[in-house]
């Protein structure tokens, strides 16, 4: 698998911005006393949902927790429902959030939400996910340059789809619009699974699905990847060029991380960090990452994850400033 470089993600932390870091404490005497709510800030069938349910199954299979993890989808408002739910669970040691990049973008574009993710409890970054540009397998568009020419010509008649509004898919399409001087019609869906099905059903012309969301259709030769938005080609898509190779500086990744509510106890935080590190290092997890095009070569937890989140929050502020909030929130 290609090495993970993420050029430009090491942006300096904004002055005064700091995650609420928990002090070191022993987790020897702490463990869940009741089932753990495993909140997914996206709909069913998408990448976040698939990953959360895989993790839940591996935790149970490998007896990593004395209490079950219960996956619960809260996709409303492009993840706003889940974020508000977690913030309102302050001090709860039995609730976790499975995140994607809407962890950063939704509070930024929905200013009245009243959610401050810098107060959440960082647990574990489990993977860095990637994006590809997809069309139906029998599309007349078969390469990225043709796609760019067609989208610029068609404008609003060119219908694309993604997960939610103001989330990572709409940001990436806004970047593509700026690159090609286009103005597409963006149709939001509740989850990546719905987006993938709508593409092969030809209700939309193109998507930027994560590999896991399109993998089933790609293997069935129903969808075609035109380009990948990575620094280097992924091993699982060795024949697909990167946008950078083709002269377009378009690189974008998505984090898959676990976070707790504000005010989680230090003992609980440490216990969860240890659990997810064991899960990360398991052969099952590493095999999944390899087969589904995720980068899982470094575990990041606790304070290090807080720093990563701060950098990414600033990165997404800059992206939104560059393409304009209206470009990623309009449909």
From TrEMBL:
The keyword Signal applies. Residues 1-27 form the signal peptide. It comes from the Bacteria. Keywords: Signal. Pfam families: TctC (PF03401). CDD domains: PBP2_Bug_TTT (cd07012). Belongs to the UPF0065 (bug) family. This is Tripartite tricarboxylate transporter substrate binding protein.
């Amino acid at each position: 698998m290609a090495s993970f470089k993420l050029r430009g993600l090491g942006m300096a932390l904004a002055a005064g911005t700091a995650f609420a870091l928990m002090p070191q404490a022993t987790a020897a005497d702490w463990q869940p006393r009741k089932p753990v709510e495993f909140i997914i800030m996206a709909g069913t069938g998408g990448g976040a949902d698939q990953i959360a349910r895989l993790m839940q199954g591996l935790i149970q299979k490998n007896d990593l927790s004395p209490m079950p993890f219960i996956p619960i989808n809260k996709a409303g408002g492009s993840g706003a429902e889940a974020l508000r739910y977690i913030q309102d669970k302050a001090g709860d040691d039995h609730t976790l959030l499975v995140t994607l990049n809407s962890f950063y973008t939704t509070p930024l574009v929905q200013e009245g939400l009243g959610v401050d993710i810098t107060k959440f409890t960082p647990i574990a970054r489990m993977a860095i996910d990637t994006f590809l540009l997809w069309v139906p397998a029998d599309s007349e568009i078969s390469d990225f340059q043709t796609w760019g020419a067609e989208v610029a010509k068609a404008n609003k008649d060119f219908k694309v789809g993604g997960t939610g509004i103001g989330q990572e898919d709409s940001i990436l399409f806004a970047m593509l619009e700026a690159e090609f001087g286009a103005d597409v019609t963006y149709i939001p869906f509740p989850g990546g699974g719905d987006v993938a099905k709508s593409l092969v059903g030809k209700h939309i012309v193109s998507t930027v699905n994560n590999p896991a969301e399109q993998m089933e259709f790609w293997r069935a030769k129903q969808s075609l990847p035109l380009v990948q938005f990575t620094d280097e080609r992924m091993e699982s898509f060795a024949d697909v060029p990167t946008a950078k190779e083709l002269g377009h500086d378009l690189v974008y990744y998505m984090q898959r991380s676990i976070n707790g509510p504000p005010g989680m106890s230090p003992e609980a935080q440490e216990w969860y960090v240890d659990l997810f590190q064991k899960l990360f290092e398991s052969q099952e997890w590493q095999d999944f990452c390899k087969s589904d095009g995720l980068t899982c070569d470094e575990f990041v937890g606790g304070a290090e994850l807080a720093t990563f989140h701060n950098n990414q929050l600033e990165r997404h502020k800059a992206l939104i400033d560059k393409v304009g909030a209206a470009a990623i929130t309009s449909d």
